[in-house]
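Final report, Chapter 2: Outcomes

The project's central promise was a pipeline that accepts a single protein chain and returns its three-dimensional structure in a standardized token representation, suitable for archiving and comparison. That pipeline is now operational. To close this chapter, we reproduce one record exactly as it appears in the project archive, with the input sequence first and the structure output second.
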Amino acid sequence: MGEGLAVAPSVERILRTVVVVCAVLTLLGLLALWPSGDHRTVDPAMLDADPIGARVEQVVLQPCSYDEAAECSLATMRITEGPTEGERFTFEELTSGAGKRLAAGDDVLVLATVTVDGTTAYTFYEYERSTALLLLLLLFVVAILVLGRWRGAGALAGLGVSLLVIVGFLLPSLLDGNQAVLVALVAASLIAFVALYLAHGVTPLTTVALLSTFAALVVTGVLSWIFVRLADFTGYTDDSTQMLDALQVPIDPRGILLAGIVIGSLGVLDDVTVTQVSAVAELRTARPDLPATELYGQALRIGRDHISSTVNTLFLAYAGASLPLLLLFSEAGQGIGSIVTRELVAVEIVRALVGSIGLVSAVPISTWLAAQVLRPTSVQDHDHDHDGHDDGHGGHR
């Protein structure tokens, strides 16, 4: 990003100082909030055991055992792994509805439970989807590497580190009962450091994108904190949160909600800040003598086009995720006012609007900062002379 563009040495020093301060704060937060490792407070016996693999061998349609007027499918399954491999059992499923139904040849996951008389009972858990997911993952990796090459490889490495941060730090730290927003900010900062520098290299312009992302994250975090409280959200928006509360896991539901908004905004903010910094760099390459104010104005016009499409994308993503819920409320005949004030829907509205405001703020922040770093040629030369690195003639182009 911005190859061949010169940045004044004094500006580079300032950028390095600021990013080192941010790195130190992130490291201190990481140390202070690092999970203890003994956060488990739930007896594993209270949770589902790991599912095991099975294959559907035969499906027969017949009246349901509990209601002869209804039609059910009776699936014969064979266990394909574990100590009971080869054992067969049957599973009854109601055939009403238009969703996916069990069919011969389906690979599934089942739960095995030992009953009081010592026998093993099996229940359907989920369809086995690892093959499809691995194939899709392979296509994704190939597409990124073919188009992005070494940059793509860096982006994939950043994605891997992001997953490690979430699984190795964010989740255990939240389960430890640490302050959710602080945990999310530290995790987001660490992810941004690694992902941006791996994907775009350690350059001044990458640092500009990183600092712009931090600034926009602060805006997003503050607005989230304000409106989650103004809207009186409880944080109990799904079964998982209620289950954690029932199991007395020491979490703050509203804090988890806030953390989710911060982490969810990070990926889109990265995209906006990197794009804007790249736009400023390209404009500066084309017009080395363009004044910083004109450079800012031209790049901001590019940012407006980007924001108009990104905000709509963000809204549609949240609407698509909530579509079954919206359909349910619509079928119940509830008015739009009643629907949008329900917490399940209102949470998604706050996510979309707060995230969009964070995106909007990222455009002027990253554009202005990049325009200040990439000063016109004459200004850079003056800074160069001032630092004593010119050829002694003191002239400017």
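Archive annotation: Strands lie at 52-63, 71-79, 88-94, 107-114, 120-127.
This record, like all others produced under the grant, will remain available to the consortium after the project formally closes.
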